[in-house]
Amino acid sequence: MEEIVETKLFIVSQFHMKDMGELRYFPGIEVDRSEQGMFLSQRKYVVDILEEYDMVNVRPLKLPMDPHLKLTAEGGSILRDPEPYQKLVGKLIYLTITRPDISLTVHVLSKFMHKPTDIHLQCAKRVLRYLSGSTQQGIFLASKGSAELKAYCDSD
Fold first, then answer.
1. Contact at 8 Å (CB) between 117 and 78?
2. Who has the most CB within 10 Å: 16, 29, 51, 92?
3. DSSP letter (8 states) at residue 27
4. Starting from the edge strand earliest in sequence, which strands make up the sheet with 29-34, in order?
């Protein structure tokens, strides 16, 4: 604790800074602390995106992407204005900070930022339908125990 106080005093002497106390909110990321650890989520960020795209009361999906769909650059008709697609995918990219469950899908969608089609936009909106059923999800960082990364893969 002593070193933290010293570091803060040094930084304040070099820069105009204000100590706002314990972290509760970082742009788009909510931080809930407990003795067990920290829970990071972007619940409000997800709800705001769903409201922006008028997808609050949609029927949620269990998967962010159809597992049988292979997206290509040629499929579908090219969007006249790619900006709405680019903005949506950009927001989804920021959401992957606390939602690794959508990382692969967002990675695939981001490949088509330069020339998106109506099919790509439909797939991006499918991610929103998936998110509508899981707004509370996030990442839990335990205060005790070692960090352990687990991943699962269905080879089919």
1. yes
2. 92
3. T
4. 25-26, 29-34, 37-41, 138-142
Query: How confident is the model over 13-47, as pLDDT tens digits?
Result: 999 988 888 889 889 999 999 999 999 999 999 99
Residue extents of the structural domains in the chain:
2-142
Contacts of 62 (CB under 8 A, 6+ apart): 130, 133
Closest CA to 94 of 131, 141, 129, 60: 131
pTM comes to: 0.82
pLDDT tens digits, one per residue of 65-88: 999 999 999 889 999 999 999 999
Asked whether 136 and 107 are in contact (CB, 8 A), the reply is: no
Provide the CB-side half-sphere exposure for 127 (13 A, CA). Answer: 28
Q: How far apart are CA 83 and CA 91, in angstroms?
A: 12
